[in-house]
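Appendix B, record 7
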Amino acid sequence: MTLAHDVPTQQSPAPASPPPPASPRLVAAVVRGQRIAVPCPEWCVRSHSEERLADLSDLYHEGETLALAAPEFGGVSEVMVAALRQDPFHRDEDSGMPYLGFDATGGGNPTSLQEHAALAFIDQAIAHFEKMRDQVRQLAEARRVAEQQTAG
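C-alpha cells (predicted):
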C-alpha cells in the first residue's frame, strides 16, 4: 500500500521571469535642418526621416490608419478615420502619452480619445449601426409593399 507521503510530488516549473523591456527603436528625424535620433514605438508607421520639422514638438507617432469607406452622392468618402497616435514632445493634458486619434468626417483634424472615451464612442457607433440595420429591414418591407401595390 502506498501512502500519500510516499508519492513523489510534482513540482510546477518556476514561473518564467518577464522578458526585459525592449529598448526603444531609434529613428532619424530632421528638426530645423539637423538630423537627430528619436525613440519610436514599434507600432509607428511614419517615415520620420522624410519629414522636415520646424520644431521637435511637431514630431508625432502614428500607427496604421483605419477608415470606413462610406458611399455618398457621386462617390465614396473615408470617414471614421482612426489611428493610434502619440505626440511625445508635445506637453498637454495627455503628457505625451499614446491615444486614439479619431476623425469622424475624414477631414484631417483628429481628436484625442483615451481608452474609456474611445470604447464609449464605439458602443454608440454599434448602437447607431444596429438602428441603421433596423431601417434597412423597414426598407425591405416598404419595398415589398410598394412592389405589391404596383403589381396589383
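Remarks on this record: The longest helix spans residues 115-151. The two ends are 90 Å apart (CA to CA).
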